[in-house]
Amino acid sequence: MKYWTTGQVSKQHDVSVRTLRYYDQIGLLQPSNKDENGRRFYSEEDLFTLEKITLLKSLSLSLENIQSVLALNFSYREILVAHYNHLQVQLADLQQCIANTTSLINIADLEGELSWEHVSHLVARSKAREARWTDYFSKDENILFEKTLPSMEQNSLQTQQYIRLMKQIEKYIVLGISPKSKEGQAIAEELIMMSDETFDGDQQLIEKFWEIRKKPSEETGLYPVSPDVIDFVERCIVHWTEIHELVTK
User: Fold this and answer.
1) What is the pTM (predicted TM-score) of this model?
2) pLDDT tens digits, residue range 160-195?
3) How many C-beta neighbours within 10 Å does residue 169 have?
């Protein structure tokens, strides 16, 4: 049977001598033979095990997990399937982190500042699933929302448009501008246009979503909108609708 020294294995497999010694120390890859001077000699089977370790490391498995996998003698497919599932969990966590960060950026853009309450609320939502506004809608309706509805967890053009409108409304409220003014009616027209695009012109669905939007954010999980903003929007749209109906008669 042929054997290879630590130095030979190091050169042939691009693994440092120090790493091979560490693998031996932790019992991950122990050479089949050692002489009286402590020199390590690796068999062909040992080299095959080293190839497995290298492959598993390339899949981002920890040495502890690699040791468990080798001990259970999984097939390559079983290893890959298990690691795929592990990566899916990591991906979901990463996507949630990205969504949370995007939400905080959008909140900062909308409100001009970012308070500790915003951060802690977002962390709490990540740890425990709250009742969500999507629970009020059917599967088909939610599929439509995923494609079209602005979300604070996204950095889409629709979300930026929504943020701009909310800031504009808040500014008008502070300045005492009436919802019936030309500025208020411009807001109404843009909101109606956005709603038609988002809900595919389904007036019943628009009204259903608006009623959910007015519920407390603790109940729906939606980003909170102040009662003053909601009142301004409703008065804008009511006045725009009345004028539009008179014109079309």
Assistant:
1) 0.51
2) 888 888 889 999 999 999 999 999 999 999 988 888
3) 24
